[in-house]
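Annex B.
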Amino acid sequence: MEEVSGDVELPDSFPGGSDAFEVIGLFCYGDSVALDPFNVAAVRCAAEFLDVGGLGARCDLYINQVVLQSWDDALIVLQRCQPLLPVAEELLIVSRCVESLAFMACMEILDPEQRRDQPGVDDAGARGLVGRRWDAEVVKELAARDLWIKDLIALPFEFFKRIVQALRRQGMKEKYVSPVVLFYANKWVLSKKTHKFWASTDEAGDGETDANRRATEILQGVVDLLPVEASGAVPVAFYFALLSRSLALELKEESRTRLRDQVASQLQFASADDLPLPEQDADRSVSDSPEVVTMESIVSNHVAMQRQGAEAVAELWDRYLVQIVDDLKLRPERLAELIGVVPAGNRKTHDHLYEAINTYLVEHPGLSGEEKAALCGHLECRKLSHEACIQAVQNERMPLRFIVQALFVQQMHTHRAFAERSDSFRYMLSGELIPGVAGAYTPSPGCPVPTSQPLSTTSPYTDAHTNAALDG
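NPH3 domain-containing protein: predicted structure tokens.
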């Protein structure tokens, strides 16, 4: 007689596995069933699979009356839903948890006293990034300060994405929502520790490729979650951190373009330290690196769109050039192209452009006179500060014509400074600057009061003479 085994072989599609099946068996035989946040999602999906309607209704009641009233319970159930998809989605377990968590997060922002068993936190972490430069360590500290944010950024991206959408739908202000996205990106995209962990735990053997694939998927989603228009809720340095990371990943062209547009819209708020710098490569010039080519495209976009902050962007670009012109493979015509990315009229000052060209001449002593003259032709001495003019006059690397122009501008600055001081001295003697001083002055015998004389208006260093000399 063949022995009958008591084992039951469950199909691979059975949700919840043997533990959920055991609970259903107990229910069917009339035994007591203990539901908790750790098993209710699996039992509900298994009950649906086996068409055990009574247990399914009991699970729904438990979810609505117990789970959705608690931050911790809703979070646990949502996390347990990941291996139960798509059944958990069809039964609305995921959507109910998402909406409940979003609602409780909004209540936390609006009134922390409303919270009972949920983490008692304030919104300092969400506000702490506004107006500050992005820094990975600071971000980690702020994320750990608010427990509700720390819980959300631990979720799989698909669940996190839906909660962010629910937060906006339920009316949470962008100044609180965007930093949460930043925290998530910092943890899963920008963190080197996460990248190393993914690379080391890949069972397929190609850990680096798998880590980049995961980071790419999340980064593309993060870019879509960020606000299209600059809101001030996220520091501009964060966008540049994403931009730098994206250069090493294979983003879709749509996501790459969107990220560049976001950077371009806030370019005037950036500092030179935010911009991505290329690494030295023995086989190519830094001007052809992805970093420089990308920044060239972003600045060109900003100029073409005629956005606000044109002068600030021009100065930012010149500061960036200062950091890359020491590359020995950088050709003078390529440098001229980079200089021309910003229209000459957008430059309020040429001090940083002068510094960039001077640094290039130092690192490339073999340039011909024509090449030097072509580069210096982008400089306008009238837009150099007095200190820069003094340095330019003494700079033997500069073409003679440029030195002469700088000398005229320096003399013009000197004349203007002398004229201003002479005016002040004349007003003081006449009592206009300090009333009563001139009237109280009694000269000694044989020592007449000095008479104020008007300054000459035909100085050889007036603007008309200087302009003629510069143009000639």
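Confidence is low (pLDDT under 50) at residues 114-126, 436-470. The radius of gyration is 34 Å. Further annotation is deferred to the next reporting cycle.
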